[in-house]
């Protein structure tokens, strides 16, 4: 049985035409359709021409958003020895060793990013069933297995974000908040597009970008013109 749309959503859908919008116009419309009673997140949903069941068609990487994400990020670090103090001093919210691994196994999940130093990965491996489905398992590709904890923590706090394609080949990424200007959202969206193009899997054949939609977290989906996004040139830094 189809879910009945609310009056608010029906009214918002009437504002969105069934066509691709130029990137700037799409983001201005995203802001105009963010009418929830709380500050919504700006989301991108990108369908790629990949089949992630094949190892050479998977995507898991990070994007550094120039304008940040507008969100506070809670970081947990699994490490030992002198690295415990390094992580704490760098701003990690939760730091521990075997005892933190045990807490996670028991259900503790009050964080957005999990990092680990390489020496802890044999023990962290047992968290695969817990962290894997939530996309939180530390990985070298995602920049979350590292000995350079200070730099990594600062980057994620400043707006770096890990993402991956789901099993249907769609990438879901939060790239800011609706309080951002359309121009700042576009700078972040451009960074995401460039990251995806740089990390095109070797096994991806044919048309790579199938579609891209943006929306506020409680708003309607707005299609973005892919060619327009690729052609967009970032403004020169002052």
UniProtKB/TrEMBL annotation:
It comes from the Bacteria. Keywords: Repressor, Ribonucleoprotein, Ribosomal protein, RNA-binding, rRNA-binding, Translation regulation, tRNA-binding. GO terms for cellular component: large ribosomal subunit. One of its GO terms (biological process) is regulation of translation. InterPro entries: Ribosom_uL1_bac-type (IPR005878), Ribosomal_uL1 (IPR002143), Ribosomal_uL1-like (IPR023674), Ribosomal_uL1/biogenesis (IPR028364), Ribosomal_uL1_3-a/b-sand (IPR016095), Ribosomal_uL1_CS (IPR023673). One of its GO terms (molecular function) is rRNA binding. The keyword rRNA-binding applies. Gene3D superfamilies: 3.30.190.20, 3.40.50.790. Pfam families: Ribosomal_L1. Belongs to the universal ribosomal protein uL1 family. Part of the 50S ribosomal subunit. Binds directly to 23S rRNA. The L1 stalk is quite mobile in the ribosome, and is involved in E site tRNA release. This is Large ribosomal subunit protein uL1. It comes from Dactylococcopsis salina (strain PCC 8305) (Myxobactron salinum).
């Amino acid at each position: 049985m189809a879910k009945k749309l609310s009056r608010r959503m029906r009214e918002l859908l009437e504002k969105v035409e069934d066509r691709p919008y130029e990137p700037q116009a799409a983001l201005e419309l995203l802001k105009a359709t963010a009418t929830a009673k709380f500050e919504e997140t700006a989301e991108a949903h990108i369908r790629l021409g990949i089949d992630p069941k094949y190892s050479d068609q998977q995507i898991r990487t990070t994007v550094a958003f120039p304008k940040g994400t507008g969100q506070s990020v809670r970081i947990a670090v699994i490490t030992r020895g002198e690295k415990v103090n390094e992580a704490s001093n760098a701003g990690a919210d939760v730091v521990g060793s075997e005892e933190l691994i045990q807490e996670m196994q028991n259900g503790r999940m009050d964080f957005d990013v999990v990092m680990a130093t390489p020496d802890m990965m044999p023990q962290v491996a047992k968290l695969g069933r817990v962290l894997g489905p939530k996309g939180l398992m530390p990985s070298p590709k995602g920049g979350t297995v590292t000995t350079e904890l200070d730099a990594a923590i600062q980057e994620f706090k400043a707006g770096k974000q890990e993402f991956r394609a789901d099993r249907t080949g769609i990438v879901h990424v939060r790239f800011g908040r609706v309080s951002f200007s359309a121009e700042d959202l576009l700078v972040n969206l451009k960074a995401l597009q460039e990251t995806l193009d740089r990390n095109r899997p070797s096994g991806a054949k044919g048309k790579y970008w199938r579609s891209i939609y943006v929306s506020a977290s409680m708003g309607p989906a707005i299609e973005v013109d892919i060619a327009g996004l690729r052609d967009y040139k970032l403004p020169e830094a002052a």
